[in-house]
Amino acid sequence: MPSDRKVSPKGVARGKRKAAPEPKPKVKAAPKVKRKAKVKAAPKAKRKPTSKRRSQVRPEPFSDADAKSIVVLGSTSAMARATAGEFAARGYNILLAARDQEENRTIAADIQVRFGVETAALPFEAEDFGSHEAFFTECRRILGDSIEGVILCFGYMADQTDAQADFAKVHRMVDVCYTGAVSILEIVARHFEERKRGFIAVLSSVAGDRGKQGNYLYGSAKGGLTVYLEGLRNRLFHAGVHVTTIKPGFVDTKMTFGLPGLFLVASPDKAGKAICKAILKRKNTAYVPFFWQYIMLLIRHIPEWQFKKMRM
User: What domains sit in the chain, N to C, each tagged with a CATH number?
Assistant: First the structure.
C-alpha cells in the first residue's frame, strides 16, 4: 500500500541544487550633458527718427537769392558733372538731382569746394512721373526765383540684341529717355513761360538722327525727344525762353564703356566745355564734338535703297 507520508522535496532531488542566477552587468549611466546657459541678445539700437537721417535732410535755401542758379538732372553722369563744373566756374550756384544720392552729395561737395559756389543735392527718379511736380517745387524752394536754367542729362541705353528679346528693356528706354524727360520738361517749361526768361538744355543723341539696325530702339527714343524739343523751342521762343538740343557722339562715359566699333571718342571734360559754350551762345542744336554734325549729315543723305543694305 502506498505510504501516506509526504516526501520532502529535498528527498526527491537530494544533492541537486538550483544554480544561482547570474548577476546582470551594471550599465553605467551616460554622463549628463550640461546645457549652455542662454545668452540674452543685446537689445537692438533704435534708429534715429527719419527726419534726422542724413538722406532725408532737406537742403536749406541758398543764401544769395540774386545769384544765378541752374538745375542739373541726371547729375551723376560724367558729362553732367563736367557741365556743372563749367557753370560753377562762371559763378552759377548748382542744384544737382540724381537717383544715387550718396554720389550726388559727393559731387555737390566737390563743386562747392573747388569753385566756392552754393550747391545742393536732391533725389530724382526719371521713371517716377508722379513725383516730378513736387520735385520741381522743392527746387524752387531752395533756389527761389534765381533758377536761370535746367540741363537734362539722364538717359538709359540697353543693348540692342537684349532689348529685341526683352520688351521690358525697350519699355524702360522709352520711359527714361522720352516719357520721363517730357514729364519734367513740361513742368519746367510752364515755370519759365510764366517768368518770360530762362533756358532749357537737353542731351539727346546722334543716334536719333537716323534709324540704324545696331541701335534703332534707343535711337527711336532719342529721335522722339529731338522732335519734342523742336516743338518746345518753337513754343517757348515767344516767351523769351531758349531751348538747346545737345547731340553727343561717342563720349567716354559709363553708357558707352565696352561698346564695339567706337571711334573719335571725346572726353567728358571736353564735352562739358562744348555743352556749356553751346548753351550760353543760345544755339538751337549742337553736336558734341562739333564734327559729328558732318558725319551725321553724310549718314542722313545716304539714299534709303542703299542705306538699308548697310550694316551700321
Answer: 65-307 (3.40.50.720)
